[in-house]
Amino acid sequence: MMSLEKINNLLSALSTNPFYLEKLGGLRSVSSLEEYSAKVPFTTKAELAADQKLHPPYGSNLTYPLKSYHRFHQTSGTSGQPMMWLDDKGGWDWLCENWKWVWEKAGVTPGQAAFFPFSFGPFLGFWAGFESAVGLGIRAIPAGGLSSENRLKMMERLRPEILCCTPTYGLHLAEISQDARCLGVKKIIVAGEPGGSLPEIRDRLSKAWNAEVVDHHGMTEIGPVTVSDMSDPSRLLVRHEAYFCEVINQDEQGIGELVLTTLGRHGSPILRYRTGDLVQPDEDFALKGGIIGRADDMVVVRGVNLYPGAVEEVVRSVEGIVEYEVLIEEANSMVEVRIRAEGSGAKELAIRLQEVFSLRILVEEVPEGTLERFEMKSKRWKRRS
After folding, report:
1. CATH code of the domain covering residue 364
2. What is the pLDDT of residues 219-232, one digit of tens each?
Protein backbone atom coordinates (compact mmCIF):
# COMPACT_ATOMS: atom_id res chain seq x y z
CA MET A 1 0.00 0.00 0.00
CA MET A 2 1.45 3.37 -1.01
CA SER A 3 1.96 6.24 1.43
CA LEU A 4 -0.86 8.31 -0.07
CA GLU A 5 -3.38 5.50 0.41
CA LYS A 6 -2.18 4.97 4.00
CA ILE A 7 -2.44 8.72 4.69
CA ASN A 8 -6.02 8.82 3.42
CA ASN A 9 -6.92 5.77 5.52
CA LEU A 10 -5.44 7.60 8.51
CA LEU A 11 -7.27 10.85 7.79
CA SER A 12 -10.60 9.07 7.40
CA ALA A 13 -10.11 7.28 10.75
CA LEU A 14 -9.66 10.51 12.70
CA SER A 15 -13.26 11.68 12.68
CA THR A 16 -13.51 10.31 16.25
CA ASN A 17 -10.19 11.78 17.44
CA PRO A 18 -10.91 15.07 19.30
CA PHE A 19 -7.33 16.37 19.04
CA TYR A 20 -7.05 16.01 15.27
CA LEU A 21 -10.70 16.71 14.57
CA GLU A 22 -10.06 20.28 15.68
CA LYS A 23 -6.71 20.56 13.86
CA LEU A 24 -7.93 19.11 10.56
CA GLY A 25 -11.35 20.69 10.34
CA GLY A 26 -13.23 18.87 7.59
CA LEU A 27 -10.15 17.44 5.84
CA ARG A 28 -10.72 13.71 5.30
CA SER A 29 -8.60 12.96 2.22
CA VAL A 30 -5.94 14.47 -0.03
CA SER A 31 -5.12 13.89 -3.68
CA SER A 32 -1.33 13.99 -3.31
CA LEU A 33 1.46 13.97 -0.75
CA GLU A 34 2.14 17.60 -1.66
CA GLU A 35 -1.44 18.50 -0.76
CA TYR A 36 -1.06 16.64 2.54
CA SER A 37 2.04 18.68 3.43
CA ALA A 38 0.37 21.92 2.38
CA LYS A 39 -2.95 21.42 4.21
CA VAL A 40 -2.08 19.48 7.37
CA PRO A 41 -0.48 21.61 10.11
CA PHE A 42 2.55 20.48 12.09
CA THR A 43 2.15 18.74 15.44
CA THR A 44 4.62 19.73 18.17
CA LYS A 45 5.65 18.18 21.47
CA ALA A 46 4.64 21.39 23.29
CA GLU A 47 1.19 21.17 21.74
CA LEU A 48 0.74 17.54 22.82
CA ALA A 49 2.00 18.31 26.35
CA ALA A 50 -0.43 21.24 26.64
CA ASP A 51 -3.28 18.99 25.47
CA GLN A 52 -2.47 16.44 28.19
CA LYS A 53 -2.56 19.19 30.82
CA LEU A 54 -5.91 20.40 29.48
CA HIS A 55 -7.35 16.87 29.23
CA PRO A 56 -5.63 14.84 31.98
CA PRO A 57 -4.22 12.34 32.23
CA TYR A 58 -3.88 11.08 28.63
CA GLY A 59 -4.96 14.04 26.53
CA SER A 60 -7.50 14.06 23.70
CA ASN A 61 -5.36 12.38 21.01
CA LEU A 62 -7.29 9.12 21.31
CA THR A 63 -9.28 7.84 18.34
CA TYR A 64 -11.06 5.03 20.21
CA PRO A 65 -12.81 4.69 23.61
CA LEU A 66 -10.37 4.48 26.54
CA LYS A 67 -11.24 0.81 27.16
CA SER A 68 -9.65 -0.05 23.78
CA TYR A 69 -6.15 0.84 24.98
CA HIS A 70 -4.03 -1.73 26.83
CA ARG A 71 -0.45 -0.40 26.62
CA PHE A 72 0.90 2.55 28.62
CA HIS A 73 4.25 4.27 28.12
CA GLN A 74 5.69 7.73 28.62
CA THR A 75 8.46 9.84 27.17
CA SER A 76 11.75 10.35 28.98
CA GLY A 77 10.95 14.00 29.66
CA THR A 78 14.43 15.21 28.62
CA SER A 79 12.93 18.43 27.22
CA GLY A 80 10.09 18.99 29.71
CA GLN A 81 7.26 17.17 31.49
CA PRO A 82 7.01 13.51 30.38
CA MET A 83 4.11 12.78 28.04
CA MET A 84 1.96 9.70 28.58
CA TRP A 85 1.14 7.52 25.61
CA LEU A 86 -1.48 4.80 25.11
CA ASP A 87 -1.71 2.11 22.42
CA ASP A 88 -4.53 -0.16 21.36
CA LYS A 89 -3.77 -3.69 20.09
CA GLY A 90 -3.55 -2.58 16.45
CA GLY A 91 -1.13 0.23 17.26
CA TRP A 92 1.05 -1.97 19.46
CA ASP A 93 1.20 -4.73 16.84
CA TRP A 94 2.25 -2.10 14.27
CA LEU A 95 5.03 -0.88 16.58
CA CYS A 96 6.32 -4.41 17.12
CA GLU A 97 6.31 -5.07 13.37
CA ASN A 98 8.50 -2.00 12.94
CA TRP A 99 10.91 -3.32 15.57
CA LYS A 100 10.96 -6.71 13.85
CA TRP A 101 12.16 -4.82 10.77
CA VAL A 102 14.99 -3.40 12.91
CA TRP A 103 16.02 -6.88 14.07
CA GLU A 104 15.90 -8.29 10.55
CA LYS A 105 17.84 -5.40 8.97
CA ALA A 106 20.45 -5.79 11.72
CA GLY A 107 20.94 -9.43 10.73
CA VAL A 108 19.70 -10.92 14.01
CA THR A 109 18.22 -14.40 13.57
CA PRO A 110 15.92 -16.69 15.60
CA GLY A 111 17.76 -18.70 18.21
CA GLN A 112 20.25 -15.96 19.03
CA ALA A 113 20.17 -14.25 22.45
CA ALA A 114 19.73 -10.50 22.98
CA PHE A 115 20.76 -8.93 26.31
CA PHE A 116 18.98 -5.82 27.65
CA PRO A 117 21.23 -4.46 30.44
CA PHE A 118 18.98 -1.89 32.10
CA SER A 119 15.47 -1.28 33.43
CA PHE A 120 13.00 -0.12 30.79
CA GLY A 121 10.78 1.83 33.18
CA PRO A 122 7.79 3.31 31.34
CA PHE A 123 9.77 4.04 28.15
CA LEU A 124 8.48 2.45 24.98
CA GLY A 125 11.60 1.69 22.92
CA PHE A 126 13.04 -1.41 24.47
CA TRP A 127 9.65 -2.81 25.58
CA ALA A 128 8.74 -3.01 21.88
CA GLY A 129 12.24 -4.29 21.10
CA PHE A 130 11.98 -6.98 23.77
CA GLU A 131 8.51 -8.19 22.78
CA SER A 132 9.29 -8.17 19.06
CA ALA A 133 12.45 -10.18 19.74
CA VAL A 134 10.39 -12.82 21.54
CA GLY A 135 7.94 -12.85 18.62
CA LEU A 136 10.79 -13.54 16.20
CA GLY A 137 12.21 -16.38 18.29
CA ILE A 138 15.14 -14.36 19.64
CA ARG A 139 15.97 -15.26 23.26
CA ALA A 140 15.43 -11.97 25.11
CA ILE A 141 17.31 -11.60 28.41
CA PRO A 142 16.29 -8.78 30.80
CA ALA A 143 18.87 -7.48 33.29
CA GLY A 144 17.09 -4.53 34.87
CA GLY A 145 17.61 -3.98 38.57
CA LEU A 146 21.15 -5.39 38.57
CA SER A 147 24.38 -3.48 39.04
CA SER A 148 26.61 -3.00 36.02
CA GLU A 149 29.10 -5.46 37.53
CA ASN A 150 26.42 -8.13 37.97
CA ARG A 151 25.16 -7.53 34.44
CA LEU A 152 28.64 -8.24 33.14
CA LYS A 153 28.81 -11.43 35.22
CA MET A 154 25.45 -12.48 33.79
CA MET A 155 26.73 -11.86 30.26
CA GLU A 156 29.83 -13.92 31.01
CA ARG A 157 27.63 -16.86 32.03
CA LEU A 158 24.97 -16.61 29.31
CA ARG A 159 27.14 -15.44 26.36
CA PRO A 160 24.45 -13.46 24.47
CA GLU A 161 25.33 -12.64 20.86
CA ILE A 162 23.44 -9.32 20.89
CA LEU A 163 23.72 -6.37 23.30
CA CYS A 164 21.01 -3.66 23.25
CA CYS A 165 21.84 -0.37 25.00
CA THR A 166 22.71 3.30 24.55
CA PRO A 167 26.16 4.10 23.09
CA THR A 168 27.11 5.72 26.40
CA TYR A 169 26.21 2.66 28.46
CA GLY A 170 27.94 0.31 26.04
CA LEU A 171 31.16 2.30 26.51
CA HIS A 172 30.65 2.36 30.30
CA LEU A 173 30.20 -1.42 30.50
CA ALA A 174 33.36 -1.89 28.45
CA GLU A 175 35.19 0.56 30.73
CA ILE A 176 34.44 -1.41 33.90
CA SER A 177 34.79 -4.85 32.33
CA GLN A 178 38.12 -6.65 32.57
CA ASP A 179 37.84 -7.34 28.83
CA ALA A 180 34.47 -6.98 27.11
CA ARG A 181 35.89 -8.61 23.98
CA CYS A 182 35.85 -11.97 25.78
CA LEU A 183 32.09 -11.91 26.52
CA GLY A 184 30.99 -13.26 23.15
CA VAL A 185 28.94 -10.28 21.93
CA LYS A 186 28.84 -10.22 18.13
CA LYS A 187 26.50 -7.29 17.57
CA ILE A 188 25.55 -4.17 19.57
CA ILE A 189 22.25 -2.43 18.76
CA VAL A 190 22.40 1.10 20.15
CA ALA A 191 19.63 3.66 20.51
CA GLY A 192 18.47 6.52 22.73
CA GLU A 193 21.14 9.06 21.72
CA PRO A 194 23.28 9.94 18.69
CA GLY A 195 26.46 7.91 18.33
CA GLY A 196 25.99 4.62 16.54
CA SER A 197 26.23 6.28 13.13
CA LEU A 198 29.27 8.41 14.03
CA PRO A 199 32.52 6.71 12.94
CA GLU A 200 34.60 7.51 16.03
CA ILE A 201 31.97 6.32 18.51
CA ARG A 202 31.06 3.30 16.41
CA ASP A 203 34.73 2.33 16.10
CA ARG A 204 35.37 2.77 19.81
CA LEU A 205 32.40 0.56 20.72
CA SER A 206 33.33 -1.99 18.09
CA LYS A 207 36.93 -2.25 19.31
CA ALA A 208 35.92 -2.38 22.98
CA TRP A 209 33.56 -5.32 22.39
CA ASN A 210 35.01 -6.82 19.19
CA ALA A 211 31.48 -6.54 17.81
CA GLU A 212 29.54 -4.97 14.95
CA VAL A 213 27.62 -1.80 15.92
CA VAL A 214 24.08 -1.19 14.63
CA ASP A 215 22.41 2.17 15.15
CA HIS A 216 18.65 2.64 15.61
CA HIS A 217 16.42 5.53 16.57
CA GLY A 218 12.81 6.14 17.48
CA MET A 219 10.68 7.80 20.13
CA THR A 220 7.74 6.93 22.36
CA GLU A 221 5.26 9.15 20.54
CA ILE A 222 6.41 7.89 17.11
CA GLY A 223 7.84 4.37 17.44
CA PRO A 224 10.88 2.68 15.80
CA VAL A 225 11.92 4.69 12.73
CA THR A 226 15.44 3.80 11.51
CA VAL A 227 18.23 1.25 11.53
CA SER A 228 21.80 1.21 10.19
CA ASP A 229 22.43 0.38 6.55
CA MET A 230 24.63 -2.68 7.09
CA SER A 231 26.47 -2.02 3.81
CA ASP A 232 27.22 1.58 4.89
CA PRO A 233 26.85 2.03 8.67
CA SER A 234 27.15 5.82 8.43
CA ARG A 235 23.60 5.84 6.94
CA LEU A 236 20.34 5.20 8.74
CA LEU A 237 17.63 3.49 6.69
CA VAL A 238 14.11 4.83 7.28
CA ARG A 239 11.09 2.51 7.44
CA HIS A 240 9.13 4.31 4.76
CA GLU A 241 6.38 1.66 4.79
CA ALA A 242 5.42 2.88 8.26
CA TYR A 243 6.19 6.62 8.17
CA PHE A 244 5.69 9.53 5.82
CA CYS A 245 8.90 11.53 6.21
CA GLU A 246 9.71 15.16 5.46
CA VAL A 247 12.74 17.33 6.20
CA ILE A 248 12.11 21.04 6.73
CA ASN A 249 14.23 24.18 7.13
CA GLN A 250 17.23 22.64 5.39
CA ASP A 251 20.48 24.62 5.42
CA GLU A 252 23.06 24.85 2.64
CA GLN A 253 24.39 21.40 3.58
CA GLY A 254 20.92 19.86 3.39
CA ILE A 255 20.64 19.50 7.18
CA GLY A 256 17.11 20.07 8.43
CA GLU A 257 14.51 18.94 10.95
CA LEU A 258 12.87 15.53 10.52
CA VAL A 259 9.05 15.60 10.37
CA LEU A 260 7.17 12.29 10.67
CA THR A 261 3.64 10.96 10.23
CA THR A 262 2.77 7.54 11.70
CA LEU A 263 0.90 5.61 9.00
CA GLY A 264 -0.33 2.65 11.06
CA ARG A 265 -0.89 3.88 14.61
CA HIS A 266 -4.49 5.05 14.21
CA GLY A 267 -5.41 4.78 17.89
CA SER A 268 -2.86 7.41 19.01
CA PRO A 269 -1.67 8.97 15.74
CA ILE A 270 0.87 11.66 14.98
CA LEU A 271 0.54 13.83 11.87
CA ARG A 272 3.50 15.90 10.63
CA TYR A 273 5.34 15.73 13.96
CA ARG A 274 8.28 18.09 14.37
CA THR A 275 10.71 15.67 15.98
CA GLY A 276 13.45 18.21 16.67
CA ASP A 277 15.97 15.73 15.20
CA LEU A 278 18.46 17.21 12.74
CA VAL A 279 19.16 14.98 9.74
CA GLN A 280 20.75 15.10 6.28
CA PRO A 281 18.78 12.93 3.82
CA ASP A 282 20.43 11.55 0.70
CA GLU A 283 18.83 10.80 -2.66
CA ASP A 284 17.23 7.60 -1.28
CA PHE A 285 15.98 9.43 1.85
CA ALA A 286 18.39 7.52 4.05
CA LEU A 287 19.95 9.72 6.75
CA LYS A 288 23.64 10.46 6.22
CA GLY A 289 25.51 10.49 9.51
CA GLY A 290 22.43 9.31 11.43
CA ILE A 291 20.79 11.78 13.81
CA ILE A 292 23.17 14.73 13.69
CA GLY A 293 21.73 16.40 16.77
CA ARG A 294 18.73 18.20 18.18
CA ALA A 295 17.43 21.45 16.74
CA ASP A 296 17.23 22.87 20.27
CA ASP A 297 20.75 21.65 21.18
CA MET A 298 22.68 23.20 18.31
CA VAL A 299 24.56 26.31 19.44
CA VAL A 300 26.23 29.03 17.40
CA VAL A 301 29.64 30.04 18.77
CA ARG A 302 31.32 32.97 17.05
CA GLY A 303 29.44 32.18 13.84
CA VAL A 304 30.14 28.43 13.89
CA ASN A 305 27.29 25.90 14.22
CA LEU A 306 28.16 23.28 16.86
CA TYR A 307 26.08 20.10 16.74
CA PRO A 308 26.27 17.63 19.68
CA GLY A 309 26.96 14.71 17.36
CA ALA A 310 29.88 16.48 15.70
CA VAL A 311 31.44 17.38 19.05
CA GLU A 312 30.89 13.83 20.34
CA GLU A 313 32.75 12.42 17.35
CA VAL A 314 35.77 14.63 17.99
CA VAL A 315 35.80 13.77 21.72
CA ARG A 316 35.67 10.04 20.99
CA SER A 317 38.58 10.36 18.55
CA VAL A 318 40.86 11.09 21.52
CA GLU A 319 41.78 7.78 23.18
CA GLY A 320 42.42 9.13 26.68
CA ILE A 321 38.97 10.70 27.23
CA VAL A 322 36.78 8.52 29.48
CA GLU A 323 33.77 10.84 30.01
CA TYR A 324 32.92 14.48 29.29
CA GLU A 325 30.33 17.23 29.57
CA VAL A 326 29.77 20.40 27.54
CA LEU A 327 28.97 23.65 29.36
CA ILE A 328 27.21 26.36 27.31
CA GLU A 329 27.60 29.76 28.89
CA GLU A 330 25.98 33.05 27.84
CA ALA A 331 27.30 36.44 28.91
CA ASN A 332 26.69 39.85 27.33
CA SER A 333 24.81 38.20 24.44
CA MET A 334 27.87 36.04 23.64
CA VAL A 335 27.77 32.24 23.67
CA GLU A 336 30.85 30.33 24.78
CA VAL A 337 31.40 26.59 25.10
CA ARG A 338 33.82 24.77 27.35
CA ILE A 339 34.33 21.08 27.95
CA ARG A 340 35.10 19.19 31.16
CA ALA A 341 36.80 15.87 30.45
CA GLU A 342 37.85 12.87 32.54
CA GLY A 343 41.06 11.03 31.74
CA SER A 344 44.19 12.04 29.91
CA GLY A 345 43.99 13.80 26.59
CA ALA A 346 42.57 17.23 27.45
CA LYS A 347 45.35 19.06 25.58
CA GLU A 348 44.99 16.80 22.54
CA LEU A 349 41.21 17.29 22.58
CA ALA A 350 41.58 21.09 22.58
CA ILE A 351 43.89 20.84 19.55
CA ARG A 352 41.49 18.50 17.71
CA LEU A 353 38.50 20.77 18.38
CA GLN A 354 40.36 23.75 16.94
CA GLU A 355 41.40 21.74 13.89
CA VAL A 356 37.85 20.57 13.18
CA PHE A 357 35.78 23.66 14.06
CA SER A 358 38.36 26.47 13.75
CA LEU A 359 37.34 27.48 17.28
CA ARG A 360 39.36 27.75 20.45
CA ILE A 361 37.35 25.75 23.00
CA LEU A 362 38.58 25.50 26.58
CA VAL A 363 39.00 21.89 27.74
CA GLU A 364 39.30 21.34 31.50
CA GLU A 365 40.65 18.01 32.77
CA VAL A 366 38.81 16.73 35.87
CA PRO A 367 39.55 13.66 38.07
CA GLU A 368 38.04 10.34 37.04
CA GLY A 369 34.67 9.72 38.71
CA THR A 370 33.78 13.43 38.71
CA LEU A 371 31.22 13.32 35.92
CA GLU A 372 27.86 11.59 35.81
CA ARG A 373 27.48 8.16 34.17
CA PHE A 374 24.34 7.30 32.19
CA GLU A 375 22.42 4.09 31.48
CA MET A 376 19.67 5.69 29.39
CA LYS A 377 19.91 8.94 27.43
CA SER A 378 22.96 10.98 28.34
CA LYS A 379 22.61 14.67 29.30
CA ARG A 380 26.06 16.01 28.60
CA TRP A 381 25.14 19.43 27.18
CA LYS A 382 24.31 21.86 29.99
CA ARG A 383 23.38 25.53 29.71
CA ARG A 384 24.48 28.11 32.26
CA SER A 385 23.49 31.76 32.17
Report:
1. 3.30.300.30
2. 999 999 999 999 99
On whether residue 328 sits in a domain, the answer given is: yes
What is the spatial distance between Cα 103 and Cα 97, in angstroms, rounded to a whole number?
10
Of 358, 278, 365, 380, the C-alpha closest to 318 is 365
The 10s digit of each residue's pLDDT in 111-142 is 999 999 977 788 888 899 999 999 999 999 99
Range of the domain at 360: 299-384
Give the number of domains in the chain. Answer: 1
**Per-residue CA distances from 152 to 46, 102, 125, 272 (Å):** 39, 25, 22, 41
Strand 212-219 relative to strand 223-229: parallel, antiparallel, unpaired? antiparallel
Is 39 among the domain residues?
A: no
Task: With respect to residue 333, please indicate whether it lies within any of the assigned structural domains.
Answer: yes
Domain-located, residue 377: yes
Tell me whether residue 35 is exposed, middle or buried, using C-beta atoms within 10 angstroms of its C-beta: 0 to 12, 13 to 18, 19 or more: middle
Measured CA angle at 248 (ends 262, 22), to 5 deg: 50
pLDDT tens digit string along 175-217?
Answer: 899 999 999 999 999 987 777 777 888 998 999 999 999 999 9
Amino acid at 345: G
Q: What are the distances in angstroms from CA 263 to CA 17, 240, 382?
A: 15, 9, 35
Residue 59: Cβ-neighbour burial (10 angstroms; 0-12, 13-18, 19+)? buried
Coil/strand/helix, residue 324: strand
What is the pTM assigned to this prediction? Answer: 0.80
Tens-digit pLDDT profile for residues 246-281:
999 998 899 999 999 999 999 999 999 999 899 999
